[in-house]
């Protein structure tokens, strides 16, 4: 999968094992980083391998997660080789450290103070890495009993919010993360994304494999609103078998810098649902419009001006730009910024080819239901049939032996 986010004037994208940064305003060369050429982990001794907790198999250099600091000064990524790579974007792009994590990671987030980077991994643990000391190893912050899917922070860095495969959202104190402030419970499938919207520091938005977006007051764990996206997804015309239940995994939730708009993206659907934030009303998020796209989007992001950028899986139409004007979202197809970025992406399209048509990252996270009773009854029926056959053979053999004895007599 490819991802996109905005760091100041830079549009930062990841695809396969590449990181690409394109300047929106100035016409300068993009920054490209190839994870296959990144620093390799030193060979460990047999003693170290026995003591270490992580598996030692070689990864694929595929970028698994990407994060930007609030000011856009720092960018971090983690890949399938368990590397955590930190970049500085000012005054120019520079890789400042390469560190290693224990398990493959799923989500990253910077603190508002930009002094720490929190990393969530597949074993359910969250680690803290120093930004100011870029060579310092990570420290374990907290752990779940299930794979972590997303991690977020409250705007004051007071709370760490983590979400896992078992539908739980946990709110922990940052300074003493063994103290749990609240749980936000209500999803029926894995929680895929978290977002604390700008301008509303007490809110938390969560998306799930159950096809819903929920709004929480995370400090108390109270659910404020639940929005089902199934109807929105079905209206787009899915190609799946109509006899099978359709699944709608929310893959991205973002808020505009002014906190007035929220955009939601579902995996494998060529559309984006927009919401307006209405304070003081019963419906806190008001659905406003659906942007239909020419094909399935990879990812989306807001820039500092509140414009919505959408990254598509197409070389010719690789990115779209929308601006909110006159109470609706309008396409900016003639924007010089859009044309500049689109041309840069065409020249770098080789970096995105491996991400086209990539398998869903949520495919193996859904619950699997087993009808044990039906299987038991079927096996019981087969067993009884087998016993009846064996009993018939025994009776036939007894009758044959009895006839033979009479004949001899």
UniProtKB/TrEMBL annotation:
PROSITE patterns: WD_REPEATS_2. Pathway: tRNA modification; N(7)-methylguanine-tRNA biosynthesis. GO terms for cellular component: cytosol; nucleus; tRNA methyltransferase complex. Transmembrane segments: none annotated. It holds the Pfam family WD40. One of its GO terms (biological process) is tRNA (guanine-N7)-methylation. Its main location: nucleus. InterPro entries: Trm82, WD40/YVTN_repeat-like_dom_sf, WD40_repeat_dom_sf, WD40_rpt. It is found in: Nucleus. Residues 381-409 are annotated as: Disordered. Keywords: Nucleus, Repeat, tRNA processing, WD repeat. WD repeats lie at residues 184-226. It comes from the Eukaryota. Belongs to the WD repeat TRM82 family. HAMAP family: TRM82. Required for the formation of N(7)-methylguanine at position 46 (m7G46) in tRNA. In the complex, it is required to stabilize and induce conformational changes of the catalytic subunit. This is WD repeat-containing protein 4. It comes from Silurus meridionalis (Southern catfish).
